[in-house]
Write a structure and sequence with these properties.
about 0% strand; 2 strands; 11 helices; two-stranded antiparallel ribbon
């Protein structure tokens, strides 16, 4: 890498030190791609031009690191992620608890928990199959190209997952794929993928998504089923004659005076399940950002 580009990126990162890590990653990727593209074009048009002349002229057009950092802060201030319940901090505990049904973030979290069993299974299968085939084919002539294609696919899947997380859970994730120079040979690009910790952290995330997806799906389905089982007790018992429980040949029905309490408990548990899904969503965003966002 050109030392001038490296120095510029270092200054830009320092200028954005208080920004979101995903914002920093996007800014660095944009700047690196822009400067490298400009440098390569300048070398083609003027073969004898020095890197300092080419990059210096481009920086004047692109802006100093401080100016670019300021522009990114302004852009980020206008971007709104998935809205949550407005004014939640000023509300009472009861308002926050019962207001979860008007919180879009809760529905986004529930949908992600249910959807994660599909994506988690796919991510796990893709990662394990790709690693296994790469290890088995490494001794053949197609082994290294196959490994390169697999690692590139991992980067692509990680980027798509970040977009899903941002859309459903409202967490800021990188919007730009990690920049890779186009002029590198396939061997150099493969080595950069292998040496980059983000590649292996993305694989770790993909492998971990299968057990996490199963846990999320089971928690949401089981708790929603329990809530509806209690809420619908009058319909199930008085219309369909379904007992509350059956042990061997003995059936148990809900006493009439307890029935309203059972229904109220079911409604209460429905609210609990919504909050539980939101909590799982917040926990998962921390896992995702630790593995899918560059430090």
């Amino acid at each position: 890498m050109s030392e001038l580009i490296n120095e510029y990126l270092g200054r830009l990162k320092a200028s954005l030190s208080d920004a979101d890590p995903a914002t920093i990653q996007d800014a660095l990727c944009d700047a690196e791609e822009h400067l490298w593209t400009a440098l390569e074009l300048a070398r083609e048009e003027k073969p004898g031009i020095s890197d300092s002349e080419a990059i210096g002229a481009e920086i004047e057009k692109f802006g100093s690191p401080e100016e670019v950092a300021s522009a990114y802060r302004q852009i980020e201030s206008r971007i709104r992620l998935v809205p949550g319940t407005r004014g939640a901090a000023g509300k009472s505990a009861s308002s926050r608890f019962f207001g979860v049904f008007t919180d879009p973030a809760a529905y986004g979290a529930i949908f992600y928990m249910l959807f994660s069993i599909i994506t988690g299974t796919f991510y796990f299968t893709w990662a394990v199959t790709g690693l296994s085939l790469s290890a088995g084919l490494i001794v053949l002539i197609i082994g290294l190209p196959f490994l390169g294609i697999f690692l590139l696919s991992v980067r692509g899947i990680a980027h798509v997952e970040g977009r899903i997380l941002e859309a459903l859970l409202g967490v800021r994730m990188p919007r730009r794929p990690i920049f890779a120079r186009k002029g590198l040979s396939w061997k150099d690009r493969l080595m950069s993928l292998i040496k980059d910790p983000m590649t292996w952290k993305s694989i770790l995330y993909m492998v971990s998504m299968m057990p996490l997806g199963l846990i999320y799906f089971d928690i949401v389905i089981i708790n929603f089923s329990l809530a509806m089982w209690w809420i619908l007790r009058p319909v199930l018992e008085y219309i369909f004659d379904l007992p509350f429980a059956q042990i061997h040949d003995t059936v148990y029905y809900t006493p009439g005076w307890i029935m309203p309490l059972v229904v109220v408990w079911g409604v209460f548990w429905l609210f609990v399940t919504m909050h539980m899904a939101k909590g799982l969503g917040r926990m998962h965003t921390r896992i995702a950002r630790s593995l899918l966002v560059r430090d």
